[in-house]
Write the structure tokens for this entry.
Amino acid sequence: MWSLPQTWATGMILSASGTSGFNTQIRDQLLSARNGWGAGIKLSLAGDQSVSNNTVDPVTWDLLDWSFDPTATLWASASGSKLLAPDGGRYELGGSLEFRSNASGYRAAGYRLNGTSAYQTHTMQNEVTDHTINVPITGIVLMTTADYLEITAFQNTGAALNLHGQHPDQTHVTWRFLGGAS
Amino acid sequence: MSWSVPHSWQTGEMVTNWKLTTDITDNMNAARQLWHMAVRLNFTDAEPQAIEANEKTVVLWSEATWQVGDSSGLWSDGERSRLLAPVGGWYQHTLAVEFDNASGGLREIGYRFNGAGAFWRLGSMEDGNGGRATKLSGTDIVQCTTVDFIEDLAYQGSTDDLNLKDGTDATYCIWRFVAEAT
């Protein structure tokens, strides 16, 4: 893991171990730089998930596709809708909501912060026939420590409509820490 | 300038120029090169690409619009469809596909791994009766092992072949290294 680099002073005794040691300051930092700064995860749905008619519903993720999140703090299955911000800073989200076929109404994807502030990222009108529709999600958001973000789905077909959950034609989201606030 | 596993230092060990150069200078440069590795691809009007009706067709890229760092391992014009993974880990994949005007039918974009298998859908929408130049985009972060590759595919359900629009800003993809598998 990355740590704040040592500021060296003339006359300082160099050691191998310890927080000022070469192993912490050079070896471990190099590995961290090589492996990538930002922790990230990809989440999807193990099965279809219903979206209410004419309601902004948060998507509850229940499948961790992969993770490079060493401290496992970006998401927890017990609160599956929440994309977590263990550190303050900017986070990147991407993915898509795949709605099952229906010939009516429109579909929307968005997100909301800490359960309240809602933002719509993309809307799409279904046209003539009842095809599956993917609504993309993308954005970079500024989070403070312990904030959480939820991806939201909307549709107004007149009845509940499922998000498609199975691989590979899937509803998914990626959530990645880009860097601290400054 | 290549990466080598950073040295684990021992207290009392003599620090030499050679060790410092290999362990710090070369590795820092190599880590930085890897970290910024990215390429954006498009195709030119000299190479129009027709997508057959009702067939998922591989998109062939003809040039790099830009690249960051040493991205020679990410794509080569010898295998123009392939987005390569020179290092095992996670890669961010953004795809935008613009179809020529045509009325009717579904449009889909996605990708597949290693030349076969499942179609991972990134976007889909229907063109109604407007005959518009529909454009789809989507993004994902994919996990690859070393020498894996992915290929982008486009699908259209109109009644005849349909060209993709060419040029730097019409149909393109961005393939970017995110983090190394650990």
About this structure: The mean pLDDT of chain B is 89. The CA atoms of residues 96 and 137 of chain B lie 4 Å apart.
